[in-house]
Every structure is written in C-alpha cells, then in structure tokens.
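Possible race condition, two jobs.
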Amino acid sequence: MSRLTHALTELSLRAVLRLLAPLPLPLIHRLGSLLGWIAVRWPNRQRRNALINIALCFPDLSPTEQRHLRDRTFAEFSKTYLEIAYLWRRPIEQVLGLVREVRGAEWLDRAPGQGLIVLSPHHGAWELVGLYLAARGHSTFFYKPQQYLDELIRTSRARNGATLAPITARGIRVLIEALERGECVGILPDQEPKADKGAIFAPFFGIPAFSMLLVNRLARRTQVPVIFIFAERLAAGQGFIIHCLPAPEGIDSADEQQAATALNRGIEQCVRLCPAQYLWPYKRFRRAPAGMPKRYVGPLDDRHALQQAQVVREAVIQSDSDV
C-alpha cells in the first residue's frame, strides 16, 4: 500500500470518528445495527467465518439458530466499532457514567501492594474496560501496534493514565515490573499468537485453538491473582454492565496444557453470558493441529459454511477418539 493511500485511509477514518463522536450513544448503536444488517445480507468472508465459528462452538443449536446468532453478532460487531468514537472522544467522566452496574467487583480487590492480571476477551465493549480499570488505579495494558490510527489508539487508551506495553520481550518485562509494583495488568487473552513459542493447542468450546501461555507464565512468576472482565452492551444504547469473574482453577498450573485449557474455559464463561457480543468473525481457529482440516475455506454461502464446520467437528471428534 502506498503512503498516499495509507494517509487517505487514515484521514477518512479520523473524519468518521469526528462525525460519530457528537452523536448520542443510542443513535450510534442504531446505526451499528443498521450497518450490521447490511453487512450480513450478502456472502462475505467475515459472515462465513462467524457462522463457522458459531457452528463449531454451539453445535447443539439448530442451523437456523446458528444463523440467527450470527446475524445478531453482526449488529453487535458493528456497534463495537462505531461506539469507539464515543468512548475515545467524549470526556472520561461521561464515558464512565455509562457503566450502570459492576457485577463481581469484589474480584478486583486485592491486598495492598499485590498486583492483578485482568483478562479482557474481544467481547462486548472492550475499549470501555481499559478506561474503567485505569480509573480504579494505574494500569498497564499489553498492546499490539495497528496498521491504521495507531497514534490515536495509543493516545485514547492512555488518556486515563494507563501505560501501554508493546507485544515484545521488553513489553513483557514492563508487565512483570507493573505486577511487582502491585499494579493491574490487562491482556486480551483470545488473540492467536503468531509465533509457535509460547503457545499450545487447547480446547475452546471443544475445538483445538492455538492459545497463549503468557498469562500462565506471568501468574506463576509473580504469584498474583487472575480474573476475567468484560463490558456487556445494554439494549437501546442504555449503557453497559461490567462483569468480573474469577479465573478457572488451573490457570497458574505448572502443567501448560491444564493452564491453557483453564484460560480458554474462562473466555467461554464470559462468552456464554451474552454470546452475540463475542467477536465471532475473528479467525480464532485459523491454525489447526497437524492432520486436521483447515477451518476457513470454501464458498461463502451459509450452506457451505455449515458443511465446513461439520467437517471440522467430525475430524475433532475422530481425533479425540483416537487418543
């Protein structure tokens, strides 16, 4: 991509954010629902990938129910990105005023000087979670540089006093130092690691997913508690409920397989509370164990997507029976 094209794209995205920011949140969410409805009307890769993921993770739903969940997901998916303008550009006090309730807030409490690892999946309004945590005390968040709007993203996420640590060896050191100082560290636990080192396959809704070991290694090294958190989006733009949940037992286990399984089980706990708000279009199962079929291949229509999910699930069942 040329520098000119990149610059024009940046300018366009910034203009959209400026246009959206003054709008009331209920209107932004209505626009998100409309955009999601439009996006799911015709075959496209994200629509197919979302349906494959949902069919893999919720095999007990009928095909009609799986498609309905996919369609609802696209409305929430669109709201997630449109509401960013509101969350980033409105005053902090106004944004935090949208938090109507915090369930499980006691899990955020800890002994004086004790750090806390907070895991926030790509679920609900994850940008709000960072602002909320930073308002409670100094926080450090693991951050992956973005192709577009990187400076704006960093500035917006840090405007409440948070520190951003890059996804590098130095960034991991920053996380460790923050935990040792008794601070809160935030990590998105459901991103697929790029490198083979530091990740293994572990079940996510029963399907092998390439899963990070960073959380386990941080927890074992620093001996701090681990919790999950997400912001559930309420209907009609009425605000958000923040949910805090304890991490499943075993997330700090010396057994890496047990730890990665516990990590994914914690993400599942969050997803099951409001399934439509998870980022189902993301290729969470892009990498597959040796000998397993690829996940995201084939035609884009729903019939073939459901067939592909069935092929993958049958292969997983067969593999499990062979063990």
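Job #2 (started ~2 s after job #1):
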Amino acid sequence: MGLKGGVGVLKCKKEEKRGNKEVKRGNKEEKRGNKEEKRGNKEEKRGNKEEKRGNKEEKRGNKEEKRGNKEEKRGNKEEMRGNKEEKRGNKEEKRGNKEEKRGNKEEMNRETSDE
C-alpha cells in the first residue's frame, strides 16, 4: 500500500509541475503581450506628440499669414489715402486752371471792349 500511495503522489506532483509550467508559460505570454501593448502606447504617444508639433507649426504659420494680411491691408489703406489726396490735389489744380481760364477770358473781353 505504501508503494501505490507513493506512485500516486509522484503522478500528482508531475501534474502539478506541468500545471505550474503552463501557468509560467501563460505568465510569459501575458508579459510579452504587456510589453507589446506598452510599445504600442509609446508609439501612439510619439505620434500624438508629432501631430501636436505639426498643429503648433500650422498655427504659427496661420498667425504669420494673418499678420502679413493685416500689414498688406494697412498698406492698401495708406495707398488709397494717398490716391484720395492726389485726386483732391488734381481737383484743386483743375479748379485753379478753370479760374485762370475765366480770368484770361475776362481780360480778353475787356481788351476787345476797350478797342
């Protein structure tokens, strides 16, 4: 009877060992899976960082473009103001020429009436 119990105990220990090995294998696979997941998370984080950097650069570009547009608008306004002033000057010159012409006409009329 002692022999039979001993063989049963050995079988039991072998099965327990096999079970432990399987658990160990499972733990290894889980660890590997966790590592891969971690790697994936790192890559995703890196991707997010790069995307953020790209967005920042795009934002900066948009700001610069906006600034350029503002300056261009300001330049256009100043040019328009200059054109207005030039037009006003031309109008005044025209008025002066008209008055001069009228004066010349009146003088010619006076001269012809004197004769």
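The radius of gyration is 49 Å.
Logs attached separately.
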